[in-house]
Write a structure and sequence with these properties.
The chain has a single domain, classed as Alpha-Beta Plaits. The protein contains three helices and five strands; from the N terminus they run E-H-E-E-H-E-E-H. It has helices spanning 20-36, 74-86, 110-125, and strands at residues 7-15, 41-46, 60-69, 91-99, 102-108. Strands 2-3-1-4-5 form a five-stranded antiparallel sheet, covered by helices on one side. Helix 2 (74-86) packs antiparallel against helix 3 (110-125). It is globular.
Length: 131
């Protein structure tokens, strides 16, 4: 069996007109869902100090999660993200990582993720995917 290295992704979430507290709640909700999926690790991204005069909920970067997932589980994780996004059309997600040596970046809503899922599925099976 070949040694597969985990894919590391940094996620950032946002929602239209959401407060810092709402973003924190949404981030923690998504983190809990990701931990229930087959990820190697999932954690909030540690942040620095809050700028003077601002409120800080926790010493984390609001809306940021770092995950590591084995390649065969990537499509399932993206589907989890898609389902989470679909629950509220104001939610958006941004992520960046490397898959099979190629950098992937995404920013958008649930419907935008479908194209990425199809593309990744095609790469895994060796099929070409038309854009």
């Amino acid at each position: 069996m070949e040694n597969q290295q985990p894919i590391k992704l940094n996620l950032e979430i946002s929602a239209a007109d959401a407060t810092a507290e709402e973003i924190d709640r949404l981030t923690r909700q998504l983190l809990a869902e990701l931990k229930q999926a087959d990820v190697e690790s999932a954690e909030l991204v540690a942040g620095g100090h809050a700028p003077a005069g601002t409120k800080s909920i926790d010493p984390v970067t609001a809306g940021a999660i770092a995950i590591a997932v084995l390649p065969p589980m990537l499509t399932k994780i993206i589907e989890t993200l898609q389902a989470w996004l679909a629950r509220d059309r104001t939610r958006k997600i941004k992520f960046k990582g490397k898959v099979a040596g190629q950098v992937i970046e995404f920013e958008g809503a649930a419907e935008d993720l479908q194209k990425l899922i199809e593309s990744l599925s095609g790469k895994r099976t060796g099929k070409q995917v038309n854009k």
